[in-house]
């Protein structure tokens, strides 16, 4: 089974491992596309102004372009530690067991989908960006969805039981029809927007800490409830109800 998490725009800096080795990454069928996207992102970053415009970065984020320019040579760290923010704070991956970490993957505009322990560099690339090919005019830049085509879907179709916690942008890069999704609701039944990431992080942590991996949605519900969360099923989808304050 596998829980696929969304990435984060913010990422930890540095790393104690060598530069990215695409051949070592999970879902090796994605490597050709990964390498082309990485090369085009590095090429774009040679022109700071053009890169900031394409990536929609403000002046205070200029160092993100510097990171992109060096992404093929910069140090790496496990993906679960590279990504930061609300979801990853709740997930608190540093103390997860190896078996639990192996149940987690992360969607990515650059890598498609990667295992939680895959070693990756710092980078900045949103799923909404139109990244130009290095050898073609910028106005012919394709969407990330077009770049990935059906590759992510095909890679994830092999997973026996998939819980897809990706946000809409990243789910659209490679939808899996058989995946189990999750909606986070308030006690009154209203959809939780930004802070749904926090609860998805808590849910993923519960799955990772479970002695046994779930093989069906009902088992995932049982694990979440045992961890103290109000999770149920509605027409095959997971519903996480946020406790009242």
UniProtKB/TrEMBL annotation:
GO biological process terms on file: response to hydroperoxide
GO cellular component: cytosol
Protein name: Peroxide stress protein YaaA
Organism: Corynebacterium amycolatum
């Amino acid at each position: 089974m596998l829980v696929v998490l969304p990435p984060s725009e913010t990422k930890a800096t540095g790393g104690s491992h060598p530069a990215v080795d695409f051949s070592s990454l999970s879902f090796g069928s994605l490597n050709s596309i990964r390498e082309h996207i990485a090369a085009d992102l590095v090429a774009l970053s040679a022109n700071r102004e053009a890169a900031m415009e394409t990536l929609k970065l403000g002046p205070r984020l200029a160092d993100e372009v510097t990171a992109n320019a060096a992404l093929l040579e910069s140090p790496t760290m496990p993906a679960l530690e590279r990504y930061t923010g609300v979801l990853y704070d709740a997930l608190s991956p540093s103390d997860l067991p190896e078996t639990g970490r192996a149940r987690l993957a992360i969607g990515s505009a650059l890598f498609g989908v990667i295992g939680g322990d895959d070693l990756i560099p710092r980078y900045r690339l949103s799923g909404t960006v139109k990244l130009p090919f290095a050898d073609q005019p910028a106005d012919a830049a394709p969407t990330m969805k077009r770049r990935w085509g059906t590759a992510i879907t095909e890679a994830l179709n092999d997973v026996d039981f998939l819980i897809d916690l990706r946000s809409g942008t990243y789910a659209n890069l490679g939808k899996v029809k058989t995946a189990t999704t999750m909606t986070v609701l308030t006690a009154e039944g209203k959809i939780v927007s930004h802070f749904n990431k926090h609860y998805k992080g808590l849910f993923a942590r519960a799955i990772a800490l479970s002695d046994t991996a779930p093989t069906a949605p009902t088992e995932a519900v049982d694990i979440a409830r045992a961890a103290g969360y109000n999770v149920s099923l509605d027409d095959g989808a997971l519903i996480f109800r946020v406790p009242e304050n």
